[in-house]
């Protein structure tokens, strides 16, 4: 009787497998005959075969799946390599090698970061696992797709995600600082830093602005087709009222020139050396110019510059266009850079942890160019930038450097600039205020709650 029911269950399985995977009929027959040849007692065979979760049945349905092409999303974790991840799917070394070869020039393996994912397509058959293709999204701006062509070779293509530029308008009031107020309103840090740079020639961020001063910004934002913000673009316009005075600055590119910052009269805002040759969001003045007690030597002596305390590694910028006079280690100054500018000015940057590779004696540098990083080399109690300004061999207070001659837009550019200004005005009037939108949302929320 037991033997009989066993035969029935085997017959049932054969039918089930025939339906599930006709192609595997032959293989299955071999499996069954192997199973029957085993010395396993009949009862156990019976139990196994009538059980829906028996290994053989699973094997059967899996065989069916293995015939098909499969898609898999692969998550990248720390320490993974493309090869190690693909090997987990039994993809051959040869396929991994061919894929890597094809990806070369389109995808830098270093662009694949932990937390990201990519997708693969592969096929399993008697010969093993064959990789059919892979798709990577190393950034929000493009995808890298690798597929086999008719000849079976991998072909890789880089597809750029179409981005559109959208103008954003934000207005607000300064609270603790302009930087934190702007960030709180959702303005990207890159744009805020640009705005600070644009304003830094005419507005003193330490003493010139106060809580409650209004500001307005217009900047570009790149969005994908779904309207997701992908990356910030450039600052177009910034206005701020400081000490009752309205400052308006436009980012404008005269014909055939790079964009620069101009005031409403079409004058370049760059009229002096940068007063703060360091990322101003990360620094504080730790020691001013003039007489002080030296923090290490203990006695009173003149401090020939200004110290900016900032985290180790903070970027240090050239205060103005110029030529590098010295770049290297210089006693108590540690790593030291000295630059000569127009009008008889020279500037010094000391205690740097690192001098930028392009900052060599005789090299030309641009205002705002990174020349090194904050450190504590030489005689220093902690990471800070020691900054000196020297006018005709006399140390002067960097905070009170006289303005350099004003540069105007050329007459032929002024008309275009005035038109550009009008466009900005129109855009400001036409665009909703982000801040106001937010408060309207808030009002709606309150109303809804009451209703
Ligand atoms: Zn100093």
Automatic annotation (TrEMBL):
GO biological process, one term: proteolysis
Any matching Pfam family: LysM
GO-annotated cellular components: cell envelope
UniProt-annotated location(s): Cell envelope
All copies of domain LysM, residue ranges: 72-120
Protein name, as recorded: LysM peptidoglycan-binding domain-containing protein
Cofactor or coenzyme needed: Zn(2+)
Keyword vocabulary terms for this entry: Hydrolase, Metal-binding, Metalloprotease, Protease, Signal, Zinc
Molecular functions (GO terms): metal ion binding; metalloendopeptidase activity
Lineage: Bacteria, Pseudomonadati, Pseudomonadota, Alphaproteobacteria, Holosporales
